[in-house]
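F.,

This is the one I mentioned.
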């Protein structure tokens, strides 16, 4: 199945249903050559959105992506790039969502990514120490300066996003366009419940991350933590601890049952899990990650699985995840 494109919320921007992010891999597992190969595979399959952040590998991820894209020679009007602002360093002026840090972080990201503007720019977390008006004004200024085209939030609450929209309307500023929340079979509350009023009221778009629940929905952790996996890497001890908790073990048990559904559909669990995310009409794009090219090629095949997830299959998946009798899924 060819790549399909969805509008980012109420904007006119069309993003590929599947996109590619550099978190974990660029700068830690991959250099420029490996990154260039992965980016080329994604681009050749129709992916037009590539996600990054200032905090990923302390800026190294953006440097690698920028050099790799420059080497590939893509036309700038054929793809979209993002960055996120919040964690830029240890000094007081190098973090948060103050006007200064937003200004400095954006200019640094442009330099690292080797572009004149960012298509999407996210406030990576809410900043309780900075007035929302200051943050909205700073992001609005970047839009009007042409340094970014759309701005949004990541892991904000519906209340905080609503406040940002209110400030933008009150002072005639550029409002947020999108939110980047975690969303997968095991993490659903924000997308499916908390944000529901925002889709209609503000036409909020979503660029969701972790569709495979940090790798749990690949099934590779059913027999422990394999070497080379994300949870075996330094700095991800928190993720390993979470997976080894009683709640994490319950998820692994559910994953084994989901494996059986995927086999019956003649697909893999990762492909089915990603396709499940795409069934939600409030998802603008699903950000994929990859530690090797074979994994990326496989996950891109999720597009072929979407039509197979009929109401009966969705109800069966819901029964396993929610541990209740099978009932149809209502995304609204």
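My design for it:
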């Amino acid at each position: 199945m060819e790549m399909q494109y969805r509008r980012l919320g109420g904007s006119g921007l069309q993003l590929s249903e599947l996109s590619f992010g550099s978190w974990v891999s660029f700068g830690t597992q991959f250099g420029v050559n490996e990154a260039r190969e992965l980016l080329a595979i994604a681009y050749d399959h129709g992916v037009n959105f590539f996600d990054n952040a200032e905090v990923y590998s302390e800026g190294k991820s953006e440097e690698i992506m920028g050099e790799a894209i420059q080497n590939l020679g893509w036309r700038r009007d054929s793809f979209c790039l993002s960055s996120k602002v919040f964690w830029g360093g240890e000094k007081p002026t190098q973090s948060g969502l103050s006007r200064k840090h937003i200004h400095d972080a954006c200019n640094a990201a442009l330099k690292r990514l080797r572009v004149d503007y960012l298509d999407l720019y996210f406030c990576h977390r809410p900043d309780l120490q900075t007035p929302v008006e200051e943050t909205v004004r700073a992001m609005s200024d970047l839009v009007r300066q042409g340094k970014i085209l759309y701005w949004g939030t990541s892991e904000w609450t519906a209340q905080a996003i609503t406040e940002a929209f209110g400030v933008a309307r009150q002072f005639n500023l550029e409002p947020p366009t999108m939110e980047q929340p975690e969303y997968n079979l095991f993490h659903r509350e924000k997308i499916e419940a908390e944000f529901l009023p925002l889709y209609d009221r503000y036409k909020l778009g979503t660029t969701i991350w972790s569709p495979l629940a940090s790798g749990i929905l690949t099934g590779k952790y059913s027999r422990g933590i394999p070497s080379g996996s994300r949870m075996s890497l330094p700095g991800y001890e928190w993720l390993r601890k979470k997976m080894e908790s009683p709640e994490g073990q319950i998820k692994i048990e559910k994953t084994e049952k989901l494996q059986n559904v995927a086999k019956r559909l003649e697909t893999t669990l990762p492909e089915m899990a990603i396709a499940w995310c795409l069934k939600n009409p409030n998802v603008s794009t699903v950000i994929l990650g990859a530690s090797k090219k074979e994994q990326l090629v496989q996950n891109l095949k999720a597009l072929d699985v979407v039509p197979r997830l009929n109401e009966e299959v969705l109800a069966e998946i819901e029964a396993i995840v929610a541990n209740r009798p099978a009932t149809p899924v209502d995304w609204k």
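The mean pLDDT is 93.

Talk soon.
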